[in-house]
């Protein structure tokens, strides 16, 4: 009986150790060069389950509805895509999204999802500290003096993100295909008049 309990205890311990490697918790991510690939995979996993593609990846229409365009993953709102007219009265109490989910209009005006690729027009020139400040403090481009990020960026949900997970996401994003795309500047509520439905 003792032998069975010992085997079960060892199995339970092994399962616990294995599962701890699968969640962030207090587990430290080994960031040595030999584990860079693991770090990239972890970051890709976090970016995927975190829903980053929902807003930061332009979509293409399929028979199943809009899906992230594999050629434009995480490149943000396309610079050449104009914002069509919309009911600006509605945006005083509602939030509207464009069909690609890369532009949002609301009481704050119109905001556009950022380019998160490794290109210089994305986060290619960012430091890890900038990335952390952006996603945990809501600072534009991760600059201490930067303007606040606009909705719908859910940075308040990421305030307590573990440093290991931030690092993994950053390393993954820096490994992505660089896509040159200068995302438009936000539109202030005072300038919404040019988008009024006629």
Describe this structure in words.
The protein is of the alpha+beta class. The chain has five helices and five strands. A hairpin with a 2-residue loop joins strand 4 and strand 5. Helix 2 packs across helix 5. The chain is globular, with a radius of gyration of 21 Å.
Short description:
With 198 residues, this protein is an alpha+beta fold. It has five helices and five strands; from the N terminus they run αααβββββαα. The strands form two sheets. It has a three-stranded antiparallel β-sheet with strand order 3-4-5, with no helix packed on it. Strands 1-2 form a two-stranded antiparallel ribbon.
Helix count equals 5
What's the count of strands? 5
Separation of the first and last Cα atoms:
81 Å
Spatial strand order of the main sheet? 3-4-5
Beta-strand fraction estimate: 5-15%
Helical amount: 25-40%
Tell the overall outline.
Answer: globular
N-to-C order of helices and strands: HHHEEEEEHH
Could you give the topology of this structure?
Elements: H1 2-20, H2 36-49, H3 52-56, E1 59-62, E2 65-68, E3 96-97, E4 103-106, E5 109-112, H4 128-137, H5 163-174
């Amino acid at each position: 009986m003792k032998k069975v309990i010992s085997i079960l205890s060892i199995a339970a311990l092994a399962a616990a150790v294995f599962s701890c490697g699968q969640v962030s918790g207090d587990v430290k991510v080994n960031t040595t060069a030999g584990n860079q690939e693991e770090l990239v995979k972890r970051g890709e996993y976090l970016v995927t389950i975190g829903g980053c593609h929902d807003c930061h990846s332009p979509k293409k229409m399929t028979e199943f509805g809009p899906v992230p365009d594999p050629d434009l993953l995480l490149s943000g709102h396309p610079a050449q895509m104009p914002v069509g007219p919309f009911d600006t009265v509605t945006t005083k109490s509602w939030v509207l999204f464009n069909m690609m989910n890369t532009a949002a209009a609301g009481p704050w005006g119109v905001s556009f999802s950022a380019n998160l690729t490794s290109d210089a027009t994305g986060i290619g020139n960012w430091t890890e500290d900038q990335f952390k400040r952006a996603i945990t403090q809501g600072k534009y481009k991760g600059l201490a003096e930067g303007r606040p990020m606009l909705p719908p960026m859910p940075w308040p949900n990421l305030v307590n993100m573990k440093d290991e997970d931030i690092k993994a996401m950053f390393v993954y994003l820096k490994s992505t295909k660089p896509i040159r795309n200068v995302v438009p500047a936000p539109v202030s509520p005072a300038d919404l008049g040019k988008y009024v439905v006629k």
